[in-house]
């Protein structure tokens, strides 16, 4: 069903399956239309998509897509509505059949022995997601990554605040990365666009996530950024308070 929802919205759902050998491939044949053989993957395409279900419920499927695009309903609530007592509703079954087409395309691109472009794109996407999750765990209650509220509203408030902090960190880091790139180029350094494209605002070793904070004197005047650190300046260790050695 998730594949079907992504497909009808024009998005690409590309999860990584741990049990890839157990996944099933499907073939879709329009009623009354003859299709040829599938060559080397003929044995894989033994399961058939029931396109009649998709055709029957297609107008309702489009209405569901419109409701998602206009934010009239959440995808999570839709998935709950698509199933009753562990069994899919007729509309849910139609999305499942439709999703089997997209899932088969996804699996074929994953196991492609010649072109690994798709697998590389998946790995980059997962790396970004894992980096964001790591940042969230570090920010959430001092690297503990725990939610302390016992009721739903309180949890949602804490998660909403966490999302706000994450967005602020990403925005702050992005602005300073852009300023650093601009300064390096102004100084005559050669920076390749492909290297800049790999920069991530989710890196946060430079952020102090524990301790006390003062926000009054840390806001630059007139919205200007602070001066960038001189890379040739000596750095202090974490336990060094800057005092002269004995």
Question: What would you note in describing this structure?
Answer:
- There is one protein chain.
- This protein is mainly alpha-helical and 246 residues long.
- Helix content is 47%, strand content 3%.
- It contains 7 helices and 4 strands.
- It has helices spanning 2-8, 51-69, 75-81, 90-110, 117-139, 152-186, 193-196, and strands at residues 26-27, 47-48, 83-84, 87-88.
- It has a two-stranded parallel ribbon.
- Helix 1 (2-8) crosses helix 4 (90-110).
- The radius of gyration is 25 Å and the shape is extended.
- 9% of the residues are buried.
- Mean pLDDT is 79; it is low at 236-246.
- Residues 1-213 form the Tn3 transposase DDE domain.
- This is Tn3 transposase DDE domain-containing protein.
- Residues 233-246 have a biased composition (Acidic residues).
- InterPro entries: Tn3_Tnp_DDE_dom.
- Residues 221-246 are annotated as: Disordered.
Low-pLDDT windows of residues: 236-246
Radius of gyration, CA atoms, in whole angstroms: 25 Å
What would you call the structural class? mainly alpha
Strand content: under 5%
Mean pLDDT: 79
Distance between the termini: 68 Å
Work out the number of β strands. Answer: 4
Largest sheet: 2 strands, parallel
